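Final report, closing paragraph on structural work. Over the funding period we assembled a curated collection of sequence-structure pairs, and we close with a single example.
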Amino acid sequence: MIAPPAPAIVIAAGGEGQRIGGRKPLRLLGRQPLLAYAIANAAAQSDCMAVAVREAGQIDAGGLPLLCDAVPGRGPISALVSAFDFAAAQNRPEVLLIGCDQPFLPHDLATRLGAALGANKVAMPVSRGKYQPLAALWRVDQMALADYIAAGGASLWRFAAAQGVVHVAWADDGARDPFANINDPVALAEAEAHLSTAARTPAR
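Its predicted structure, as stored:
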């Protein structure tokens, strides 16, 4: 039996990142831009990747396709529109949408969410009591998304609930939350400290 293709993975990188001083995808963490961590994570899970941006020329995505918001200013829901369109064009029935500001995302995210998806339209992680709509696996449904936005919808979480979502609990091992966002200088400094500690910890 032929295994189904891996889901498309689209990295949402269109936010302005004002709290961190702008140009969030290019902010350095451990001498690498945040976007580089997202690209490495996506590459470990799929052969079909792209980066969703606000407008052309916003960032250099290292040769990956850049997906520009059809209507700028709507936030992450615009990235999901781009993700659905990209996945459909690549004949991938599912797409994992992740943020560019989550450098510690699990490398088995797509596999675990795919295993939990079942008959649902969305599989969404829950980590430390927080839902993670910007790290969820979606079945592509361009018409449903278009109808939702036309009716004034803008929340990823509410669209997931309307579509039919299964929540996937992520075990808390006491270490850093793998879904933590880097939204401000404090969070960036904490991530730097985490990287430094990990680098000093010998492998078991």
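The mean pLDDT is 89. The radius of gyration is 16 Å. We thank the funder for supporting this effort.
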